[in-house]
Design brief:
It contains 4 helices and 4 strands; from the N terminus they run ββαααββα. By secondary structure, it is α+β, with helices and mostly antiparallel strands. The protein has one domain: Orthogonal Bundle (Arc Repressor Mutant, subunit A). The strands form 2 sheets. A two-stranded antiparallel sheet has the order 1-2. It has a two-stranded antiparallel ribbon with strand order 3-4. A hairpin with a 5-residue loop joins strand 3 and strand 4. Helix 1 packs across helix 3. The chain is flat, with a radius of gyration of 20 Å.
Length: 117
């Protein structure tokens, strides 16, 4: 997985432009199709290390899951809708929630109360 825009190429070094946020989703789907099985977040992070930061990767994954392009399996791996979960990760559960947490008990309490006059 490499961006397609080269800026400079030398015998020792190749400098490329990092992908935009809109292109990251396409690269993730392409990587999962090439592997042929669902990939865990850690595997995707290693695949895109040096290309995309962890926050941008997580944000793109959440967008793809919310739009229905990818499916998140109970073990925390991401795959295309027709894929089956990996057999080597059957008993695993994802370690943390990947969606925004809403704390209802905090939202009900006001943080500031104006003094009485």
């Amino acid at each position: 997985m490499t961006p397609k825009k080269k800026i400079y190429e030398d015998r020792d070094v190749v400098v490329m432009v990092a992908p935009r946020d809109t292109e990251i989703g396409e690269l993730i789907v392409e990587a999962i199709k090439e592997k042929g099985y669902p990939m865990a977040f850690d595997e995707l992070r290693l695949e895109f290390s040096g290309i995309v930061g962890e926050d941008r990767l997580r944000r793109a994954l959440n967008k793809l899951v919310n739009s229905g392009i990818l499916v998140e399996f109970p073990d925390g791996s991401f795959g295309l809708p027709g894929m089956k979960p990996r057999s080597d990760r059957v008993g695993l559960r994802k370690r943390r929630r990947r969606s925004r947490r809403i704390y209802l008990d905090i939202a009900a309490k006001p943080f500031y109360v104006a003094p009485k006059r």
